[in-house]
Amino acid sequence: MHNRKDKFMIDLTGIISITGQPGLFKIIAQSKNGIIVEGLADKKRVNVYASTKVSTLGEISMFTTGEDKPLEEIMTSISDKEKGGAAIDSKADDTSIEKYFAEILPEYDKDRVYISNMRKLITWYNILQANGALKQKEENKEGDDKTKALKTEDKLGVKKSASKDKAKPKTAVGVKKTTGVRKTGTA
Questions:
Q1: CB neighbours (10 Å) of residue 15?
Q2: What pTM was estimated for this model as a whole?
Q3: pLDDT averaged over consecutive 10-residue blocks of the chain (187 residues)?
Q4: Domain containing 115 — which CATH number?
Q5: Is 51 part of any domain?
Q6: Where in the sequence is the domain holding 114, given as residue range(s)?
């Protein structure tokens, strides 16, 4: 097992794959009925509805003969091998892809990891590399706590909204403004 504390780990936070759509996307914001994403390659923003099947790259792992390996670790291995450059072309012949993949993840499960899985991973890596999205994961506890808090809020359906109107509310002349209290009926 590799000790990665002395090396950086690639951060795939906020990068997603959408079923039925080519390429990778970055989560931009939450919308009323889904999320707004931006294509890494074309920079086009689209609304993805809550019913659409979406996979977060940070939560995907591959089968090995031991414990499953997260994509972040595998992509870090590719980046180390290529010194931050592009990987092999994902359209290369099957033998070349298998040989390349065995170099970056020698313990992969040969019965459960198919050529198509290898090609997809290499394609994703090359998209991230070409668009400058191979970022180092920060080893900051405070940042991890904020990320966990956001994930928990997302699971609970909590929606954070930015204050749109920063202007002070207007009050009629001679009317006292009460802060934080809503009056109903007559007084």
A1: 23
A2: 0.68
A3: 56 91 93 93 92 93 94 93 92 95 95 95 93 74 43 39 42 47 48
A4: 1.10.10.1650
A5: yes
A6: 10-134
